[in-house]
User: What shape does this take?
Amino acid sequence: MTRAAPQLPDFPWDSLAAAKARAAAHPDGIVDLSVGTPVDPTPDVVQEALRRAADSPGYPTTHGTDELREAIAGWLARRRGVTLDPRAILPVIGTKELVAWLPTLLGVRGTVGFPELAYPTYEVGALLAGAAAVRGDSTVAWGPIGPDLLWLNSPANPTGAVLPEEHLAKVIQWARTRSTVVASDECYAGLEWDAAAPSLLADRLTGGDHTGLLLVHSLSKRSNMAGYRFGFVAGDPALVAGLLEVAKHAGLMVPGPVQAAAAAAYRDDAHALAQWDRYAERRAALLPALATAGFRLDHSEAGLYLWATEGRPCTETVDRLAGLGILVAPGDFYGPRGAEHVRIALTATDERIEAAVRRLTCPEEAVEPPFGASSG
Ligand SMILES: Cc1ncc(COP(=O)(O)O)c(C=O)c1O
Assistant: This one.
């Protein structure tokens, strides 16, 4: 007999349809700042590597090519202060997929912990594994035993908060006296504005001992490669070897041309720095406009989102902004503590960000909802 499908939460984005319709009715079109999907071109260096690898008749290697893992190790050393044996790196098809399946792949049955305000897939991963999904931000919240798997996310989605070195050091010490595996989702690494976001695996913090620690990174945001579906998990050699073993059997290989493109992306920092500049300008344009429109920002030091509040329920703010033709994500998508915040993404073209700035600072551009539409 098959096991009943696990009870998953409602897919939150479906509930934004009415606000989206209202925002789309703006005569100058919608400014969609609700999702964090990159809009700038995939860098030429990456596209070229993909094209060069297009002739790909054989199966790719599950562990990734040496070229790829060396490129990743080089980037980790150069940009993240992490020294790692390339054998302790496993490429994955997108980190959403990894986040959703890591508890299952690790055989977690007890508890998966993740931040109070968090990317929803951490919870989904716990439920798919049949584990308990528990929110918490401090080691005190976990009690003497601790979860089997604890997710950290810095820079954070949705808040843009970073975890300082002292916090990471404390978590490492705490986890070493328990059997908790700590997985650090660093997919917004490098997109740092007002505070630096150190890696959990930084040599300064681990002293080179990665036991029980995993680092997850994705090229979706750093290199505008969300469509390529590429990320990696690295760290504790025994854990990575176990994940590789499962991947060999289950066939979760990253396509060969994507591996070649990812290697080119990790070797090149220039495109990531150029992308940083673009987001920094968009952020600098939005900050004063949001202040003029009566918003307070919390955290928002790093990452691709501004975490904004008017001190009222997030659905009301979503409605108000939809009336200006701007779509944002309600904070309660990310946990109950987000009930009075909205998440505003920096991932829109310069032209759309300028439109948002105009609408926030000249609200007379607001439009009435289309006949019959209600944002609920
Ligand atoms: C915190 C966090 N982790 C992981 C992901 C997944 O990224 P991808 O599947 O594109 O690698 C996202 C995507 O927005 C995210 O915000």
In short: The first helix runs from residue 17 to 24.
